[in-house]
Design brief:
Its EC number is 1.1.1.157. The protein is of the alpha/beta class and 301 residues long. It has 13 helices and eight strands. The protein has an eight-stranded mixed beta sheet, sandwiched between helices.
C-alpha cells in the first residue's frame, strides 16, 4: 500500500505523537480536531516532540524541520480527509464519542481508505458496525512515546479481508513501527492485557487502601529492577485517559472501588489541572520527575 496522506482524528497525547511520527516518516499528515481550543492544545503537545526526538534519536534539526513541514492541523473535516489513504481515530476511549466520529466521516471518506482505531480497550467488532467502510477497518494500537516504544499492535474483527490486514502491516512499517498481529480479539491487546492489571492494582491500593503512590512506585522499582512504577506510567498515559479507562471498568463490573478511583483522580488531579506529563504535573512534577532522581531509591544504612 502506497501511503501519501494520513489523517489523525484527535490531537491528544497519542494522536499528536502518531501524527508527528507519520510526518517524521515523510508522509503528509493532518490532525483534525473539533475546535480551535483543541487544535491549540495539540500544537502545544507537538511542540514538545522535536526536542525529544533530537535527544532520544539523535535527529538533526534539518530532518525535524522537514517533518514539521509535513504536518498540519485543522477543524475542517472535509478538507482534512480529502484524498486520505489512512485515517487513524485517536479520540477519547468512549464508544459514543467514537461512534459520532465515524458517522461524521460518511460523506467524505474514500472507498479504499484504510481506517484504524487506536482504541486501547475496545474490540474492533464493537466499533465496525458504524464505520463507513468496515471492510477497510481494524485496530492499530500504539504505545506512548512511540518513537522509542515503536510497537503497533494490529487486531481485526472476524471476516476482515486479508488485504486490509496486509495493508495495515505495511503502513505500520512505513511509519517505522514494529507490527504485532493479534489474530484473536482480546480486550487490551497484548500490551494492555498485561499492563492494565498492574495500573488497576496500583490505583486501587491508592484509592481504596489509602497507600502512598510514591511508596508504591518505590516498592515496585526496587522489587522489579525497573526505571519507574505504575504511577509514573499513569502520568505518561495522562490522568484523563486513566479516568476514562477506570470509568469503563466500573461500567463493566459495577465494582464500587473503580468508582472510588475515578472520584479521587478527578478531585485530586483533574480538577486541579494536574494532567500528568502533558501539563507538567500529575503524581510527579516534570520534566524532572522524582523517580528519575537518585534519592528515589531508598538507601539502606
Amino acid at each position: 500500500m502506497d501511503v501519501n496522506k494520513v489523517v489523525i482524528l484527535g490531537g491528544g497525547v497519542l494522536g499528536s505523537q502518531i501524527a508527528f511520527q507519520s510526518a517524521f516518516s515523510g508522509i503528509e499528515t493532518v490532525i483534525y480536531d473539533i475546535s480551535d481550543k483543541a487544535i491549540s492544545a495539540a500544537k502545544e503537545k507537538i511542540a514538545t516532540l522535536p526536542p525529544q526526538y533530537k535527544r532520544d534519536l539523535a535527529v538533526s534539526d534539518d530532518r525535524l524541520a522537514v517533518a514539521a513541514a509535513q504536518l498540519s492541523l485543522t477543524t475542517d473535516l472535509e478538507s482534512a480527509i480529502s484524498h486520505a489513504d489512512v485515517i487513524i481515530e485517536a479520540v477519547p476511549e468512549r464508544l459514543d464519542i467514537k461512534k459520532s466520529s465515524y458517522a461524521s466521516l460518511q460523506p467524505y471518506i474514500g472507498a479504499n481508505t484504510l481506517v484504524l482505531t487506536n482504541s486501547s480497550t475496545l474490540l474492533p467488532s464493537q466499533i465496525n458496525d458504524f464505520v463507513p467502510n468496515k471492510e477497510r477497518f481494524l485496530a492499530m494500537h500504539f504505545a506512548n512515546l512511540i518513537w522509542l516504544h515503536n510497537a503497533a499492535e494490529i487486531m481485526w474483527a472476524p471476516g476482515t479481508p486479508q488485504n486490509t490486514i496486509d495493508d495495515a502491516v505495511n503502513f505500520a512499517e512505513q511509519i517505522q513501527m514494529a507490527p504485532f498481529k493479534i489474530s484473536t480479539e482480546i480486550s487490551g491487546y497484548v500490551m494492555n492485557a498485561l499492563f492494565l492489571p498492574l495500573i488497576n492494582a496500583a490505583l486501587l491500593l491508592w484509592a481504596d487502601k489509602d497507600l502512598d503512590p510514591i511508596m508504591i512506585d518505590q516498592d515496585w522499582v526496587v522489587s522489579m529492577g525497573v526505571d519507574r512504577g505504575p504511577f509514573g506510567f499513569v502520568d505518561i498515559m495522562g490522568i484523563n485517559t486513566a479516568i476514562n479507562i477506570e470509568t469503563g471498568f466500573y461500567e463493566n463490573t459495577k465494582d464500587e472501588r473503580f468508582k472510588k478511583v475515578v472520584a479521587k483522580l478527578t478531585k485530586e488531579y483533574l480538577e486541579k489541572g494536574k494532567m500528568g506529563v502533558q501539563s507538567g504535573e500529575g503524581f510527579y512534577k516534570y520534566p524532572k520527575p522524582l523517580y528519575q532522581q537518585p534519592e528515589f531509591r531508598p538507601t539502606v544504612k
